[in-house]
Specification:
By secondary structure, the chain is of the alpha+beta class. The chain folds into 2 domains: about 70 residues, no CATH class; about 60 residues, OB fold (Dihydrolipoamide Acetyltransferase, E2P) (Beta Barrel), CATH 2.40.50.140. About 45% of the residues lie in helices and about 20% in strands. The chain is built from 3 helices and 5 strands; from the N terminus they run αααβββββ. It has a 5-stranded mixed beta barrel. A hairpin with a 2-residue loop joins strand 4 and strand 5. The longest helix has 27 residues.
Length: about 140
C-alpha cells in the first residue's frame, strides 16, 4: 500500500475520533496527517514524512489549538444581537397578553407576548425577557 494512502487513512481515522472527543487535538493531528499525505504523494522519503508530520502536528497543537479552545470558551456575557437580550429586564409600555403588547428593552421598543399565554401584564410592570421569537419578545413578570 502506498504511504500517501496510509497517511490519508490515518487522517480520516483521526478526524472521526475528533468528532467524538471534541478536544481539537485529534483534528489537528488529522490535519498534520493530511499534509503529510500530500508530501508522501509527491515522493518524499519515509523519514522525511515523519519529520513533516512531527513538525506540522507540533505546530498545530502548540499554536493553533490554544486559539481554537480560547474561541470556543467565550463567556455567556459576550453574546450579541438578539441573543444578548434574553435574560434582560424590560419595561411594559402597553398591556402584554398572550396575543401581544409592547415592551421597552434597553431603550428600544419591541412587540411582546406573555410567555405564559394566560397572563395579562399591565403597563409599568418590569418583566424578564425569556426568549426572542423573530421580532417578538416573550416575557414573564419579575418577582
Amino acid at each position: 500500500m502506498d504511504p500517501w494512502l496510509i497517511w490519508l487513512i490515518v487522517a480520516a481515522v483521526l478526524a472521526v475520533a475528533e468528532i467524538f472527543t471534541l478536544t481539537a487535538a485529534l483534528g489537528l493531528l488529522g490535519g498534520a496527517a493530511l499534509v503529510t499525505a500530500g508530501f508522501a504523494a509527491i515522493g518524499l522519503a519515509l523519514p522525511l514524512q515523519f519529520l513533516v508530520f512531527t513538525i506540522t502536528a507540533a505546530g498545530g497543537v502548540l499554536f493553533v489549538r490554544p486559539l481554537v479552545l480560547r474561541r470556543a470558551r467565550l463567556p455567556q456575557g459576550e453574546r450579541f444581537g438578539v441573543d444578548a437580550l434574553v435574560g434582560r429586564s424590560a419595561y411594559v409600555v402597553s398591556e402584554v397578553t398572550g396575543a401581544g403588547g409592547r415592551v421597552r428593552i434597553g431603550g428600544e421598543e419591541w412587540t411582546a407576548r406573555a410567555y405564559d399565554e394566560t397572563l395579562v401584564i399591565p403597563p409599568g410592570t418590569t418583566v424578564d425577557v425569556i426568549e426572542i421569537s423573530g421580532a417578538t419578545a416573550l416575557v414573564y413578570p419579575q418577582g
